[in-house]
Amino acid sequence: TLRATLVAEVRRRLRASWLQRGAAEAELGWIDGVFDPDVLTVGFARRVPTYKRLTLMLRDPQRLRSMLLDPDRPVQRVVAGKSHPADEGGKALIQQVVRFADDPEVRHRIVFLPDYDMSMARYLYWGCDV
User: Fold this and answer.
1) How many domains does the chain have?
2) pTM (2 decimals)?
3) Can you give the residue range of the structural domain that contains 65?
4) Sheet holding 40-47, edge to edge
5) Residues in CB range of 76: below 8 A, 6 or more apart
6) pLDDT of residue 70
7) Are 112 and 80 in contact (CB under 8 A)?
């Protein structure tokens, strides 16, 4: 299915991202449990200037956490993007999302995928519900 393809691509890119950040392959077994093809999937992918409010979802982190982990109606979010090399504000927003998504409690339900491009857009467009 399209969702299963998205889940596989998210896991592949997430593994590559963690390896690039210096993680050892032995530490990344948890990535095989990232995302569930049967859970509502919300995607956010674009350039990350400060005015696009990427971190609005983090305004109430406990509420976001409870939505991601709801036992009856969980949600998963895939966030993909990049900022202009000279946009320090955009880079700071991405760092906030990455810090939240790195939390072991929620990292199976929210991911940040760096270096958003058209090949990634195809997976997100067809595999996300929203």
Assistant:
1) 1
2) 0.86
3) 2-127
4) 40-47, 75-82, 110-114
5) 35, 36, 39, 40, 41, 42, 68, 109, 110
6) 96
7) yes
> Which tokens hold the place of 61?
């982190």
Could you read off the pLDDT of 54-73 as tens digits, one per residue? 667 778 889 999 999 999 99
Counting Cα atoms < 13 Å in the Cβ hemisphere of 127 gives 27
Long-range contacts of 71-76 (CB under 8 A, 24+ apart): 73/40, 74/36, 74/39, 74/40, 74/109, 75/39, 75/40, 75/41, 75/42, 75/109, 76/35, 76/36, 76/39, 76/40, 76/41, 76/42, 76/109, 76/110
Q: Does residue 49 register a pLDDT over 60?
A: no
